[in-house]
Every structure is written in C-alpha cells, then in structure tokens.
Design a protein that fits this description.
mainly beta, Pnp Oxidase, Chain A, seven-stranded antiparallel beta sheet, 2 domains, 36% strand, Rubrerythrin, domain 2, three-stranded antiparallel beta sheet, binds flavin mononucleotide, 210 residues
Length: 210
Amino acid sequence: MDTNALFKIGYGLYVLTAGVNEDDVKSGLFKVKDNGCIINTVMQVTSDPCMIAIAVNKKNYTNEMIQRTKKFNISTLSEGTGFDIFKRFGYQSGRDLDKFEGFNNIKRSPNGVLYISENTNSFMSAYVKQEVDLGTHTMFIAQLVEAQCLSEIPTVTYDYYQKNIKPKPEKTEKKGWRCKICNYIYEGEDLPSDFICPWCKHGAADFERV
Ligand SMILES: Cc1cc2nc3c(=O)[nH]c(=O)nc-3n(C[C@H](O)[C@H](O)[C@H](O)COP(=O)(O)O)c2cc1C
C-alpha cells in the first residue's frame, strides 16, 4: 500500500482551539486555560443543521479539553502562514507549555474560546453533539453556532504546506526513518509499528525509509 496516496486528499489545515474555565486551572485539572493544535481532519457533514466532523488524537491535550467542555473553534489557515504557527501549535503540547504566551494574533469568540485572527481566512465555533471512539483518535461531530469569513486568501492545503511552508529536509547522513509530516528522523533499522513521532505525534504509517 502506498500511503503517499493519502497526501493527495485535498485537506485544508486548521488550528483547533479549546478552553476550560478558571476553576479547572485553579483546581489543577488543567495546566492552561486555552490551548490549540494543528489538525487537517475537518469536514462539513450536514448543512441543516450545519455540522462538522473533526478527528483528534486522544494524546492531544486539546482532545482532553474538548472532552471536558464539549466546545471548540476552528481557524482556517490561509496561504502566507509561516512555519512558526505550525511549530507553535503542531509540534508541542499544551501539557508542557502555554502555547498562547507571547502570541497576540487571537480573539475570543462568544463561546469563550480563542481563535486565530491573523493568517486565517475564517473561523467557526461548534458544540459537540456526538463522539465516536476511533481507537487512537476521537471523532467529534459538532454543530456550528458561529462562522465568519476573515479574508479571501486561499486556504493552506496539505499539498501547499508540504511544498511551500514545511522546511525542506536537511541533507543527512543519518539512516533510519523520516516522518513525512515534520521530517523528524528515527535512527534505527526497524521502526516499531506503534511508533509515534515525538514532534508531530503522527504514527509509523507516515514514516519513510532514509
Ligand atoms: C501538518 C500537521 C497536521 C496535523 N494534523 C492532525 C490531525 O488531523 N489530528 C490530530 O489529532 N493531530 C494532528 N496534528 C498533530 C497535533 O497538532 C500535535 O500533536 C500537537 O502538538 C498537539 O498539541 P496538544 O497536545 O496541545 O493538543 C498535526 C500536526 C501537523 C504539523
């Protein structure tokens, strides 16, 4: 099976944001009030009522927040977005640091959750109606309560990200397996089938031999 075929799916790229209340932080249940991560798995599934589905890894802190609050925002990244956004939201976890520290391109929507207000062409707010356990991921099916267009700049697709945003892999003497999502290199002959990339959290299926 050539898993490169999956990169031909016309995904967009998004910042999924969620937030808990002050009490959940004071009680120690959550370390930060607001968090977000990069996802590509967003699709509209019905129009009346308007519902979307997203798939989020259970290891993501953002998943835990959505499980807690049943609400989230989607900010659609637009062409021109720098790699720094992907590093901030896609390569580190809110479990370890506050991703919004020193980051000012944000607004809070009426549902109380942050969204990204620059380098995005739209945002949506949604309330979870159903959760589907997919093993590694949770699929949240959610109803939109707010949606706004922010610019006419085209959406960053996965293909655009691979070609124009993601840094080109360095020439390396290292032998092993390279993550096709973020270029992390696992040094070793055999990549364990349950290996999870420590940078972007994608699984062994997204690695290629180098
Ligand atoms: C290009 C790209 C696409 C990603 N797509 C998804 C996705 O669809 N679902 C997901 O759960 N994680 C996805 N991730 C990984 C998360 O963004 C990443 O694991 C993040 O650090 C989780 O942060 P958190 O623990 O603060 O929630 C993607 C990362 C990148 C760089």
